[in-house]
């Protein structure tokens, strides 16, 4: 079979991530230099803009849950980490690539990128019209690259590293944190490769790989795939599958028809 290709445009600094909207009507591109491009299905540009935490968001939100970070009790370790605020860097295994995830109804999408000035990972939520809706960033934690928007549209799941624990944390669309689940791994032992909701959002799959930061980049890792469910606001690890070096996982995906496959 012969395939024919047609060039529709050029992006000089390269593409870091790309994702079609659920209805296949829009295409979002993230460039290597943190430029955001919104296109139609015919590749006509609708919007083009730089992304940065300095950009003004559509609405301002006030967190009335636990109060501001400055007023929370943090202990000696927390105070030490607070002094280091603003010096957060990407995780050592972070490839600095961007990622894009649409909400299931196609009204919003979230972009994961590395802020060029702070050199740390941030998330930003945009409307379908490419208007900046909110910014998700960590005060004293390091965000990881994987993101997954719940099919029920309520929460965005992300991997986050705190001082003494590794969690999957859930954010609302406005950027406020709304619960978390602590992964049963020592800090910096595992890296999260992917986060996946099943179709009815009843199961969260977390794919992780063992890391050895003292070894070279070609070192093989053990893979772990976990299935988490929640009841009464508590998360439970229902299944954990371990794969040795010889059977390292390369990809994970939920069935698009069977919720539990």
Protein traits:
mainly beta; Methylamine Dehydrogenase, Chain H; four-stranded antiparallel sheet; 1 helix; 41% strand; globular
Helices and strands, with pairings:
Layout: E1 15-20, E2 26-31, E3 35-40, E4 45-50, H1 75-83, E5 99-102, E6 108-114, E7 121-127, E8 132-136, E9 142-149, E10 156-161, E11 166-171, E12 177-182, E13 190-197, E14 204-210, E15 223-231, E16 234-243
Antiparallel strand pairs: 1-2, 2-3, 3-4, 5-6, 6-7, 7-8, 9-10, 10-11, 11-12, 13-14, 14-15, 15-16
Can you walk through the features of this model?
With 261 residues, the protein is mainly beta. The protein has a domain at 15-185: YVTN repeat-like/Quinoprotein amine dehydrogenase (Methylamine Dehydrogenase, Chain H). It is 3% helix and 41% strand. The protein has one helix at 75-83; strands at residues 15-20, 26-31, 35-40, 45-50, 99-102, 108-114, 121-127, 132-136, 142-149, 156-161, 166-171, 177-182, 190-197, 204-210, 223-231, 234-243. Strands 1-2-3-4 form a four-stranded antiparallel β-sheet, with no helix packed on it. Strands 5-6-7-8 form a four-stranded antiparallel β-sheet, with no helix packed on it. The two termini are 33 Å apart.
Within the largest sheet, what's the order of strands?
1-2-3-4
- Structural class assignment: mainly beta
Q: What is the 3D shape? A: globular
What is the straight-line distance between the termini? 33 Å
What's the total number of strands? 16
Number of DSSP helical runs: 1
Second CATH tier, the architecture of the domain at 15-185: 7 Propeller
- The fraction of residues assigned to DSSP E strands is 35-45%
Instruction: Give the overall pLDDT as a whole number.
Output: 81
Low-confidence stretches: 61-87
Tell me the name of the CATH class of the domain at 15-185: Mainly Beta
Query: Roughly how much helix do the residues carry, as a percent range?
Result: under 10%
CATH-defined fold name of the domain at 15-185 = Methylamine Dehydrogenase, Chain H
Could you give the order of the helices and strands?
EEEEHEEEEEEEEEEEE
Biggest pleated-sheet summary: 4 strands, antiparallel
The CATH H-level homologous superfamily of the domain at 15-185: YVTN repeat-like/Quinoprotein amine dehydrogenase
């Amino acid at each position: 079979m012969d395939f024919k290709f047609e060039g529709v445009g050029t992006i000089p600094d390269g593409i870091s991530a790309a994702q079609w909207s659920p209805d296949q009507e829009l295409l979002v591109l993230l460039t290597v230099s943190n430029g955001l491009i919104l296109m139609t299905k015919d590749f006509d540009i609708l919007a083009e803009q730089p992304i940065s935490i300095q950009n003004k968001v559509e609405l301002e939100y006030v967190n009335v849950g636990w109060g501001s970070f400055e007023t929370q009790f943090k202990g000696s370790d927390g105070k030490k980490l607070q002094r280091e605020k603003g010096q957060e860097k990407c995780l050592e295994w972070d490839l600095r690539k961007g990622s894009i995830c649409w909400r299931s109804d196609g009204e919003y999408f979230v972009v994961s990128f590395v802020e060029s000035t702070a050199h740390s990972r941030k998330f930003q939520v945009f409307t379908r019209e490419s208007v900046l809706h909110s910014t998700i960033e960590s005060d004293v934690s390091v965000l990881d690259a994987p993101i997954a928007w719940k099919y029920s549209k309520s929460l965005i799941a992300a991997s986050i590293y705190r001082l003494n624990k590794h969690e999957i944390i859930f954010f609302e669309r406005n950027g406020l944190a709304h619960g978390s689940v602590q992964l049963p791994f020592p800090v910096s032992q595992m890296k999260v490769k992917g986060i996946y909701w099943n179709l009815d959002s009843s199961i969260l799959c977390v794919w992780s790989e063992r890391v050895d930061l003292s070894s070279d980049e070609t070192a093989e890792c053990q893979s772990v795939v976990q299935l988490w469910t929640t009841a009464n606001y508590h998360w439970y690890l229902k299944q954990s599958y371990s794969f040795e070096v010889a059977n390292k996982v390369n990809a994970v995906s939920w069935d698009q028809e069977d919720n539990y496959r």
